[in-house]
Design goal:
mainly alpha, disordered C terminus, about 0% strand, elongated, about 220 residues
């Protein structure tokens, strides 16, 4: 394995993960505190316009989607560094990123419903439908990500196995936090921040992992 190629590709993935994680948390927090359908619908009825918080809710998912696209592109380059087995595992992370892009666009589209329809009941129905699609895509993306990190953390040839293990644990914690957060909203925000920190540390470990050059391997 080419050490320089690994470091270069891993660094690009790290920065994409860093950007995605930060904007994803901001999007989650803003949605939790400012996404209030009653308030937005009332603003539309009374003033004919949306509150300023709407625009933050609209922009953040789009920025998050852009970060996912960057992540998918970076993972494509990272995938080329490895042999078939590890490349296949990294490819699953790339598929997860692509699905996350679509889910982020759907999230933005959900919010956009407030701009194109003044029928409150219709808005709630449309948001519900898009929320289901986004949720399903998010779940599938999560499954691909988990499978990818499980394979990488157990790989004997992947240099950043330790970091992959930490990201895997962070993902599990994120799932548990999301489930608890469905009943206690503040929990999801706290867990989201913890997961971001663990993801960043995990990818730092992957980026800085020691790489054994191909020509250094002896029988």
């Amino acid at each position: 394995m080419d050490s320089l190629a690994y470091k270069s590709a891993a660094t690009k993935v790290f920065y994409s993960v860093l950007a995605y994680s930060i904007f994803n948390v901001l999007s989650t927090i803003c949605s939790a505190f400012f996404y209030v359908p009653d308030t937005m619908a009332k603003s539309l009825v009374e003033t004919g316009s949306l509150p300023s918080s709407f625009y933050a809710l609209m922009v953040l998912p789009l920025i998050t989607a852009a970060c996912c696209i960057y992540n998918a592109v970076a993972l494509k380059g990272f995938e080329k560094v490895f042999d078939e087995m590890d490349a296949s595992s990294v490819k699953k992370l790339r598929v997860s990123a692509i699905l996350s892009v679509v889910a982020s666009f759907i999230s933005a589209l959900m919010i956009l419903m407030f701009c194109v329809n003044d029928n409150y009941l219709t808005i709630i129905m449309l948001v519900g439908i898009f929320a289901i699609f986004a949720g399903v895509l998010g779940l599938i993306a999560l499954i691909f990500g988990l499978i990818g990190y499980v394979k990488l953390k157990n790989s004997e040839t992947f240099p950043g196995a330790k970091g992959a293990k930490l990201v895997f644990i962070a993902t599990i914690i994120g799932i548990v936090g999301a489930i608890i957060g469905a009943f206690v909203s503040i929990v999801s925000e706290i867990v989201a921040i913890a997961v971001v920190v663990m993801n960043i540390i995990g990818w730092i470990q992957i980026k800085n992992a020691d790489v054994v050059e191909n020509d250094a391997i002896t029988e």
